[in-house]
Amino acid sequence: MRPNRLLRVGIVIMLAGPALGGVGFVAGMLHSFATIQGDAVPTPASLARGAEWSIFAPIAGILVGMIGFALAAFAVWTRKREQSQAVPAE
Description:
There is one protein chain. The protein is mainly alpha-helical. The chain has helices at 3-38, 44-85. Helix 1 (3-38) runs antiparallel to helix 2. The longest helix has 42 residues, at 44-85. The radius of gyration is 21 Å and the shape is rod-shaped.
């Protein structure tokens, strides 16, 4: 994969990961609120599923963002290495 394309892919992954983590957090909270609204007396076990998603999704989003950052950093490093090894035309 060319460094320019790898850089674009890395940036997209870096930005999309935390955004999806935020969406997962909101979805987990909405699940918890729906459980509170639907049950007369919600139990901790019934609320645990929404809380689990509210914790898991941002962590997964941050990890995906870190992978995207690593890809983008590798692409920049590769591009700089190629530029420094290029022989100037005389």
